[in-house]
Structure formats: structure tokens, C-alpha cells
Write a structure and sequence with these properties.
2 domains, seven-stranded antiparallel β-sheet, 238 residues, Jelly Rolls, single chain, 55% strand, RmlC_Cupin_sf
């Protein structure tokens, strides 16, 4: 098993006043040649958006974009006619494909905290699409909850990539084996809250560990913890 450890304080940071963002991988003005991507996981931004502020209409193409709110209400709008609010307990996905224009804005006065994730797709030039759903209603304790997969009829949202995302809400002392779905995939484990351990590596809040070249690994909660596991292909598409 191979691993790479990324501590929370090793991330890039940008403070735009209304937006404060920690960048796990190179993004915008933060560039680290050793932190461009993990497999096809290209962006993991830990964002804080002040009340009444947000990202105005802007374009994307040929990227799978996933948003997971942690606090507050985020208002979405796009040029396909989709609009709505996403909040903690929801997940949002966009396949930018041939091109999409969208806005994401704080819908209230309470700051919004969210994870913004970009995954490089296995198909370029697809028809753009948008989806959001509640994952809170199927929330489980001390187990892996699938929130994203490559299959439209499977649990959670789906994307154009052989990827599986799971949330893990573990009580202190609980441990469980995670089994890789597909050969050649790796898992980027990100601790949202609490403290966890994989092998001998302790992961504190907002720390991460990339794991690959293995069929499985054991995740253990050192404290009550909420953890996001992002399984993705390690090989970039041609």
C-alpha cells in the first residue's frame, strides 16, 4: 500500500474578504507543482462564503463538479434553467461537458462552508447536466454511506468517471475496512471533523491521506469523526 499525507496546514490559502478558501491542490493563484492532483481528483477546495456573497455566473467545461455544503444555505442557478438551495445534508453535482454557466451564492446571512470538488471525467464533450439530492435521509452511523458513483441507478449522485464517494460518521474507537471498488483506483481520505487513523498515520481535522496500490485498508476513528472518502482512478485519461 502506498500513501501520501497532506496536513491541513500544508494547503494553499486565499483570503478574498467575502471568500476564504483552503486549496488542497493547485488552484487559481496557488500553485504547487507537487500538489496538482491525486489521480483524477483535480480540486478539493474548503470554502467559506460570507452572507449575501458568492460566485456570480461563470463558465466551466469538461469537468465533473461536486459540492458538499457543511454549514449554511447555498443558492444555485445555471443557464439550463436549474435553480435551488443546497444545505448541509445535501450534495450537488454538475457535468460541465460542452459548457455550463452557473452561479453559487450564499442564500442567507449565515456564512456558508462547503467542499468544492472537481473530478476529471472519462468522457469529454458530454451534454451538460445538473443534479442535487439530500443524502441526510439515508445517513448511517458507523458505516460507509455511498453518496456518489458512476451509476445513475445507484445510491447518491453519479458522474462520468469510475469514482465512488462515501461519507463515514464513526464513533470513537470504531473501525471498518474499506474495499476498493475497481483495480487501479486510489482513495483520498479527508477528515471533515474529528480524528482518524489509517495504519500508523493519524489524521486530524481537515488532514487527508491518499491511499493506493492496495485492495483495502482499515479506517479507525480516534475521536468521533466525520470523514469523506473519494475513490477515483489513479490514471489520468488520455
Amino acid at each position: 500500500m502506498k500513501t501520501v499525507y497532506h496536513s491541513s496546514d500544508s494547503r494553499g490559502y486565499a483570503n478574498h474578504g467575502w471568500l476564504k478558501s483552503h486549496h488542497t491542490f493547485s488552484f487559481a493563484n496557488y500553485h504547487n507543482p507537487e500538489r496538482i492532483h491525486f489521480g483524477v481528483l483535480r480540486v478539493l477546495n474548503d470554502d467559506f462564503i460570507e452572507g449575501g456573497m458568492g460566485f456570480g455566473k461563470h463558465p466551466h467545461r469538461d469537468m465533473e463538479i461536486i459540492s458538499i455544503p457543511l454549514e449554511g444555505d447555498l443558492r444555485h442557478g445555471d443557464n439550463m434553467g436549474n435553480s435551488g438551495i443546497i444545505k448541509k445534508g445535501d450534495i450537488q453535482v454538475m457535468s460541465a461537458g460542452t459548457g455550463i454557466m452557473h452561479s453559487e451564492e450564499n442564500a442567507g446571512e449565515v456564512p456558508v462552508k462547503l467542499l468544492q470538488i472537481w473530478v476529471i471525467p472519462n468522457k469529454m464533450g458530454v451534454t451538460p447536466r445538473y443534479d442535487q439530492m439530500s443524502i441526510e435521509e439515508n445517513s448511517v452511523q458507523n458505516d460507509f454511506q455511498q453518496v456518489l458513483s458512476p451509476k445513475a441507478d445507484d445510491a447518491g449522485v453519479w458522474i462520468h468517471q469510475d469514482a465512488w464517494f462515501n461519507l463515514a460518521k464513526f464513533d470513537k474507537g470504531f473501525s471498518k475496512e474499506y474495499k476498493i471498488h475497481q483495480s487501479g483506483n486510489g482513495v483520498y481520505v479527508f477528515v471533515i471533523k474529528g480524528k482518524a487513523k489509517i495504519g500508523d498515520q493519524i489524521l486530524n481535522e481537515r488532514d487527508a491521506l491518499g491511499v493506493w496500490d492496495t485492495e483495502s485498508f482499515v479506517l479507525e476513528a480516534e475521536e468521533n469523526a466525520e470523514i469523506l472518502l473519494m475513490e477515483i482512478p489513479m490514471q489520468l485519461p488520455d
